[in-house]
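ok new one. same drill as before - structure tokens go in, u give me an amino acid for every spot. 296 of them this time. try not to just spam alanines like last time pls lmao
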């Protein structure tokens, strides 16, 4: 049924109270993520850790109203008024927790739309990180930001050739030129490869994509920018886990390579001076100079 503004706010408060501190993220199977493209609107739940659900911040009524007008004006779902699917993660005890798309979901509820398009994402959680660390084989790691360093706009940055058809229709992001070779060299010389992304990619998607370039990632952390009430506490626990496992880390960024050491204040910060051979070649040379006895 359609909801008024006050009814919706009461509904949000009751949903947050029902799931806060109770829900448990679940991993959706590959088949479920491929086949399940929509869900009942009432089976989606507001994320208690998102600003949308905070009483002192809450939903933006103007944004909800804009989407609601669009949904009503286009005859609800018949003309597909959705720009993007609502990103969700599967949870226990039931349904899906919203990751991105709270305001569109709210507008659908208020417009009495029964089903909404969804995209199920398997995020990385603390238990996943512990598992990845337990399976790691080295005491050094390299970290790269997928959004800022690895994925690129081929109109602005030299990129690897796209994958062959039809695989390129699944994996649409373009990888910076030289990244696969760089990661092969790092792995060969005793580094665990960790990548991060603030976006809501599935762990499975990122892992499978890099395997197309014959690169095995040791660690994948997705959705790192999502807002959570316990983010500081969780972040400290994860940092402690990394410090206990790795004696040093190379943070490869766009313009520099930062070498840090666990439980030590000293660090090295080296500028990446790209030349005609490309960005990845410049990074490889920096690493060779850091470890002349190990690089090959």
């Amino acid at each position: 049924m359609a909801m008024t503004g006050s009814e919706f706010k009461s509904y949000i408060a009751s949903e947050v109270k029902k799931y806060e501190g109770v829900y448990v993220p679940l991993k959706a199977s590959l088949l479920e993520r491929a086949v399940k493209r929509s869900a009942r609107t009432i089976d989606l739940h507001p994320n208690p850790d998102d600003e949308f659900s905070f009483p002192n911040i809450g939903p933006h009524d103007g944004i909800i109203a804009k989407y609601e007008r669009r949904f009503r004006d286009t005859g609800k779902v018949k003309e597909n008024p959705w720009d993007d699917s609502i990103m969700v993660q599967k949870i226990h005890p039931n349904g899906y927790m919203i990751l991105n798309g709270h305001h569109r979901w709210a507008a659908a509820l208020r417009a009495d739309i029964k089903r909404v398009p969804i995209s199920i994402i398997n995020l990385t959680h603390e238990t996943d990180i512990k598992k990845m660390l337990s399976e790691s084989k080295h005491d050094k790691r390299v970290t790269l930001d997928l959004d800022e360093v690895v994925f690129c706009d081929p109109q602005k940055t030299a990129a690897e050739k796209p994958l062959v058809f039809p695989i390129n229709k699944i994996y649409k992001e373009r990888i910076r030129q030289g990244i696969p070779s760089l990661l092969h060299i790092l792995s060969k010389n005793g580094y665990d490869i960790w990548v991060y992304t603030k976006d809501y990619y599935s762990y499975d998607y990122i892992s499978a994509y890099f395997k197309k370039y014959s690169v095995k990632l040791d660690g994948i952390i997705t959705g790192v920018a999502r807002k959570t009430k316990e983010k500081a506490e969780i972040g400290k626990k994860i940092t402690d886990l990394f410090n206990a496992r790795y004696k040093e880390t190379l943070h490869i960024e766009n313009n520099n390579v930062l070498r840090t050491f666990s439980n030590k204040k000293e660090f090295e910060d080296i500028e990446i001076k790209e030349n005609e051979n490309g960005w990845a070649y410049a990074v490889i040379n920096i690493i060779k100079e850091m470890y002349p006895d190990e690089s090959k």
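The chain has two domains: 5-120, 126-290. and btw The two ends are 66 Å apart (CA to CA).
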